[in-house]
Amino acid sequence: MVNFTVEDQEGNRQDCEAPDDMGFNLMEILKAYEYPILATCGGMALCGTCHIEILEGKDELGEATDPELDQLENLPEYFPTSRLACQIRIGDVLDGSVIKLRGEDQ
User: Residues in domain 2Fe-2S ferredoxin-type (predicted)?
Assistant: First the structure.
């Protein structure tokens, strides 16, 4: 299991746990926790509605892919630590991270 923390738009934090052996991405886990993630493209890095900011642990997650960066750069707010939750696979690299929800529908 992987443990990480999610901060919502109001600054409230919740510890979350996710299985790291089922191939889920972070967007799917956030939806399972009932966070308001639209994910209108279904996780294809085409809509940006699963936009998050990595507050802690960004170095372990690696760099965003070119298609991910293309989508992030089109968002109204874009931060150097912005990522799309659909492009982050649940794994050990996520353990201990703190993420902030930034998606459009927040």
Answer: 1-105
Encoded tokens for 96:
């201990």
Residues 6+ apart with CB under 8 A from 7: 13, 55, 98, 99, 100, 101
Ranges assigned E (strand) in 1-106:
2-7, 13-18, 51-56, 82-84, 98-101
Length, in residues, of the chain: 106
On whether the CB atoms of residues 49 and 27 are closer than 8 A, the answer is no
What residue ranges define each of the domains in the chain, with the CATH number in brackets? 2-101 (3.10.20.30)
Specify the long-range contacts of residues 27-31, CB closer than 8 Å, at least 24 apart.
Answer: 27/84, 27/85, 27/86, 27/88, 29/90, 30/6, 30/85, 30/101
Region 14-32: mean pLDDT is 96
Burial class, 7, CB count within 10 angstroms (exposed 0-12 / middle 13-18 / buried 19+):
middle
Whether pLDDT at 52 is above 50: yes
